[in-house]
Amino acid sequence: MSSYQIIVGSMLGGTEYVAEACEETLNELGHQTLVHLTPSFKEINTKDQHWLICTSTHGAGDYPDNIQEFVSDLTNTDQDLNSIKFLVIGIGDTNYDTFCYAAKNIEKLLISKGCKKITDALTLDMSEDIDPEDLSQRWITEINDLL
Ligand SMILES: Cc1cc2nc3c(=O)[nH]c(=O)nc-3n(C[C@H](O)[C@H](O)[C@H](O)COP(=O)(O)O)c2cc1C
Hints:
The chain is α/β, with parallel strands linked by helices. The protein contains four helices and six strands; from the N terminus they run βαββαβαββα. The protein has one domain (3-146): Rossmann fold. The longest helix is centred in the N-terminal third of the chain and has 15 residues, at 14-28.
């Protein structure tokens, strides 16, 4: 059983539903979870934690407003983050040539800080007729052996 900090970047609210669906599945699989809808870096446990970042992309490849301060604090920290293992789910739209840039950029940032990637990010294209909650739940179930 692992302890998951679920960190949400969302402008219009859609990604919050994805995060809640992930929480449900992680709990069913026996993991502990805490969802951060307004993530504050200093309040999120960094010791022996799993982090699940669920973020959309806005502007032209930008982070959603609610996660910008978190990303800035993460960028500037000199804390030891080596014990964090992480997953990323990106929500975006392939009509933008900056498809899921927030997810891709935070993945690079976490790696640069010494965090360990559990597996490649899941990116979901909202221009397709998809159910992002369902796809995220299936993905977590499929990779459960790694969690
Ligand atoms: C103004 C605006 C800018 C966007 N820019 C991007 C972008 O650069 N890259 C991308 O992949 N998706 C982009 N999107 C698509 C959103 O990521 C997508 O609609 C997502 O479902 C929104 O999730 P949210 O409700 O959690 O904010 C943009 C959407 C809007 C409305």
